[in-house]
Amino acid sequence: MLAPPTPEATLVPPAPPRAPVVPASSTSARPRRRRLRGRTGPYLLLLPALVPIAVGLGYPLARQFVLSFQEYGLAQQFGRPAEWVGLDNYTKLLTDPYVWGVIGRSIAFCLVNAGLTMVVGVALAVLMTRVGRFARTTLQIGLLLAWGTPVLATMTVWQWLFDSQYGVVNWLLAEPLGFEGMRHHSWIIEPLSFYLLATLIVVWMSVPFVVFSVYAGLLQVPDETLEAAELDGAGAWQRLRYIALPLVRPVLLIVGLLQVIWDLRVFTQIYVLQRAGAPTRETHLLGTFIYSLSKEFGTAGAMATIMLAITLALTIVYIRRMLREEP
Predict the structure, then answer these.
(1) Where does the chain show beta strands of DSSP type E?
(2) C-alpha radius of gyration, the chain, whole number
(3) Does 70 fall in a domain?
(4) I need a labelling partner for 109 at 20 to 30 A (CA). Which of 18, 191, 205, 245 fits?
């Protein structure tokens, strides 16, 4: 007969360790700290890049804004205190009909050039997706050469082409095509032909950026989507209009925004053509007009501020669309 188990033989499981008592305030603070760290983390990573940008761009912009309310000329550069004139510089500019003419020409030039650049650039980007490898490589090399050539070197070539005495363009128009009146035509004397030549040069130099940007976006369009649309009976134009272009719309918006900004503040092409013999007063755009006011820093600062306001007004539609499409 078995003896009953003694108390010493009975196995008693050890008691589980007691969890430390954590105050409710600390447990609720941890998720808040994590959320705060997750929100501020990206901004802290951007801080090293934002500081030099704020110093390099913010200070000149603030200095320009302050100068626009002062009478600041050559005397002030040699130590004379600048006189605060308030809105006098803006009033003098905005009541001058010639200034409004410059603003109107600049906006028209900007919109025409940006529109032509986008149309030609998108067309060439679509062409690059359709042609063979050899033709695509040749087109890419040509665009890179046009894009990488310095502006002054490009301007020298264009001046040779449209020279009134020895230009190839005048010779082609006079000899093979029979336009005798174009034999010694000066393209930069008349404002209309001046802006036509300037538009040709600006579009020529701006198209490569649009082509490469849009072409890179078109390469990301899924082939399966295009093949499915083709099986459903969609033609090439329908696939481009209703599938490809909507998918690359963010790229088009950003590139279009940049083109508007660049074409509104164009300077080098206009200035070089003016120095070649064009009438400056009839061909001034905002960039060259501000440069002509370089001896009057207060007036030039006011005009530059007006130009900044016009740029923001022209690009506000693009900015709203981009912000609306962000996730």
Answers:
(1) 70-71, 83-84
(2) 32
(3) no
(4) 245
Residue 70 phi/psi, 5° resolution? -125, 160
CB contact at 8 A, 106 and 267: no
287 CB-near residues (< 8 Å, 6+ apart)? 265, 266, 267, 270, 271
Q: Name the average pLDDT for the chain.
A: 82
Predicted confidence (pLDDT) per residue in 103-130, tens digit: 999 999 999 999 999 999 999 999 998 8
Cα separation of 13 and 312, whole Å? 76
Q: Establish if 154 belongs to a structural domain.
A: yes
Q: What is the pLDDT of residue 166?
A: 80
**Quick one: which H or E segment has residue 191?**
helix 191-218
The pair of structure tokens assigned to 12 is 């008693």
Region at 277 (left for phi over 0; alpha for psi -120 to 50; beta for the rest): left
- Amino acid 327: pLDDT: 54
d(C-alpha 245, C-alpha 240), whole Å = 6
How many distinct helices (H) and strands (E) make up the chain?
A: 17, 2
Residue 206: the pLDDT is 92
Tell whether the torsion through CA atoms of 300, 302, 307 and 308 is positive or negative.
positive
Q: Measure the CA dihedral 43/48/54/55, to 10°.
A: 160
Q: Is the confidence at residue 218, as pLDDT, over 50?
A: yes
Q: Which domain holds residue 253?
A: 119-286
Residue 266 lies in a domain: yes
Contact indicator for 224, 167 with CB cutoff of 8 Å: no
pLDDT of residue 32: 65
Residue 209, Cβ density class (10 Å: 0-12 exposed, 13-18 middle, ≥19 buried): middle
pLDDT digits over 71-114, tens only?
A: 877 777 777 777 787 888 899 888 989 999 999 999 999 999 99
Mean pLDDT value of segment 51-73: 81
Whole-model pTM: value is 0.78
Domain count along the chain: 1
State the CATH number of the domain containing residue 210: 1.10.3720.10
Element housing 126 (H / E): helix 97-130
